[in-house]
């Protein structure tokens, strides 16, 4: 059977990202149609509202103006995740922090990791990248004269999830002729071979397609409730299984940090994301180590005001992913595919990655779909496992001992085998590019370097020649000078956002 009709179930960020990826890939194919069916009464969850730099390439590919994106979605720039109090305060000081930066470390050529290991006199990010000082100074990653999607430094975005979904929807419908159907699915019909045959809706009758994409969120109506694809639970490795999310207004003159703030507490951590007119704050915690009442009390303490005065949501988080992501004639994306807590903004990252992958490899018929499924499931399982390891690394490297939560995170039985092997290897030698041999590493060398040495991982120092040490010192000074230059030349974050809102940026 040829694949001519594609149906996406569910809107939100996942559904409309998929619609744009497919629309772009099929824009010259008149024989294939894409429709998106969503219920008009299901709200967007919007956990985290943060992205990673790869989203810039997708938005540019979709033909979306960065200026309009920033104007319409309350966007702010994100150059880093600033991790606060993830290390023991007695050893590393109260309010200890490090940056997981979005610009490449050691941009002038020489890898300065060994130089840092030999001295450890300043924060790793501060030595290897000018972006550390730019973030701390509250500067933007670009100037108004930069073209759209270009900048002096690497960056991603913070955004309003509901407005982002609407922007993606408008683009998919207008530019790629995606059909938008508002209807509630009442029943899913199956074929004799177990494939999905059609969706029975409340106001559009029976809707059928050749290929279905499940973006129905945690409900997972197709991949879970209908096709019964098993779930791979990861709660024995990642403990934070609940979040309290709240939106707090900010003043129009208040400075906007150009990074996500991730502050650790005794049973998890707090995200703090500043948009143009509000902060999105989330208290992430493990229900094994803290109850809801204490979590609310701790969040109120963090905010300096009673959280009960605002509308807040308590969100249970089922940690893990589907054993198969592409099963029969159904693909799961977004929260239907899995969820691993919002640390490092992995939800949008994995959705964008998977949607782009399937759009570029869309099979022409059911036979090709079956062949693709094995490869796709293998790739996505590899990607998800590496993400589990990267998130776990933040917890198991911490030397905090002020609660059972942090002590238990260092229990070897909770650390994935591959991560444990890598950490043992990196005791003697700092990570190198060859350690990340797959093209499907969602987090790569630079990401690991910033986190490992931001958290003071004790890699042994290698012997270096006097000439090499002098070269490192010269380059370290050059990076420091570049940082000073950028701090002086780049605009304050809010100032740039206001200029973009007024004037826009030059299209590429």
From TrEMBL:
Record's protein name: Tryptophan 7-halogenase
Record-annotated active site: 78
Residue sites binding L-tryptophan per the record: 344
Flavoprotein as UniProt keyword: yes
Keyword set, alphabetical order: FAD, Flavoprotein, Nucleotide-binding
InterPro entries hit by this protein: FAD/NAD-bd_sf, Flavin-dep_Halogenase_NPB, Flavin_halogenase, Trp_halogen
Gene Ontology molecular function, alphabetical: monooxygenase activity; nucleotide binding
Binding of FAD, residues: 11-14, 185, 335, 348
Pfam families, alphabetized: Trp_halogenase
Organism: Shewanella insulae
Sequence positions that bind 7-chloro-L-tryptophan: 78
């Amino acid at each position: 059977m040829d694949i001519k009709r594609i149906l996406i179930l569910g809107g939100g960020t996942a559904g409309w990202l998929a619609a744009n990826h497919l629309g772009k890939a099929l824009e010259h194919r008149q024989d294939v149609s894409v429709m998106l069916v969503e219920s008009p009464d299901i709200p967007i969850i919007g956990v985290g509202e943060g992205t990673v730099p790869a989203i810039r390439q997708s938005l540019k590919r979709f033909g979306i103006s960065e200026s309009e994106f920033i104007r319409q979605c309350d966007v702010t720039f994100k150059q880093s995740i600033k991790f606060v109090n993830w290390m023991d305060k007695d050893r590393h000081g109260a309010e200890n922090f490090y940056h997981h930066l979005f610009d490449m470390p050691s941009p002038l050529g020489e890898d300065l990791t060994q130089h840092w290991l030999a001295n450890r006199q300043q924060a790793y990010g501060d030595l290897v990248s000018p972006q550390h000082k730019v973030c701390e100074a509250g500067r933007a990653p670009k100037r108004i004269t930069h073209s759209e999607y270009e900048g002096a430094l690497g960056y991603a975005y913070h955004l309003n999830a509901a407005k982002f979904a609407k922007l993606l929807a408008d683009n998919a419908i207008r530019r790629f002729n995606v059909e938008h159907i508002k209807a509630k699915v009442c029943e899913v019909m199956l074929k004799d071979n177990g494939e999905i045959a059609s969706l029975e809706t409340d106001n559009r009758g029976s809707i059928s397609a050749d290929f279905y994409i499940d973006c129905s969120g945690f409900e997972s109506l197709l991949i879970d409730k209908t096709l019964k694809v098993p779930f791979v639970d990861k709660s024995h490795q990642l403990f934070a299984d609940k979040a309290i999310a709240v939106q707090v207004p900010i003043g129009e003159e208040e400075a906007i940090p150009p990074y996500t703030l991730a502050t650790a507490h005794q049973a998890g951590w707090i995200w703090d994301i500043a948009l143009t007119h509000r902060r999105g704050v989330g208290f992430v915690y493990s229900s094994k180590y803290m109850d809801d009442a204490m979590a609310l009390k701790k969040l109120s303490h963090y905010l300096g005001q009673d959280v009960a005065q605002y509308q807040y949501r308590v969100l249970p988080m089922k940690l893990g992913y589907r054993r198969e992501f592409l099963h029969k004639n159904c693909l799961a994306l977004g929260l239907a595919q899995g969820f691993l807590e919002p640390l490092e903004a992995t939800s949008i990252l994995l959705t964008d990655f998977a949607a782009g992958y399937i759009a570029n490899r869309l099979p022409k018929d059911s036979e090709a779909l079956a062949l693709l499924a094995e490869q796709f499931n293998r790739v996505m399982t590899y990607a998800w496992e590496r993400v589990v390891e990267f998130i776990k690394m933040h917890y198991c490297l911490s030397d905090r001992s002020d609660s059972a939560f942090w002590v238990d995170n260092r229990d070897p039985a909770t650390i994935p085998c591959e991560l444990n092997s890598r950490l043992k290897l990196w005791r003697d030698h700092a990570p190198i590019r060859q350690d990340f041999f797959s093209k499907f590493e969602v987090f790569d060398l630079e990401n690991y370097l910033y986190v490992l040495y931001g958290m003071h991982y004790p890699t042994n120092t290698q012997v270096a020649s006097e000439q090499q040490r002098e070269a490192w010192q010269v380059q370290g000074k050059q990076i420091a000078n570049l940082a000073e230059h950028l701090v002086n030349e780049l605009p304050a974050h809010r100032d740039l956002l206001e200029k973009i809102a007024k004037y826009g940026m030059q299209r590429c």
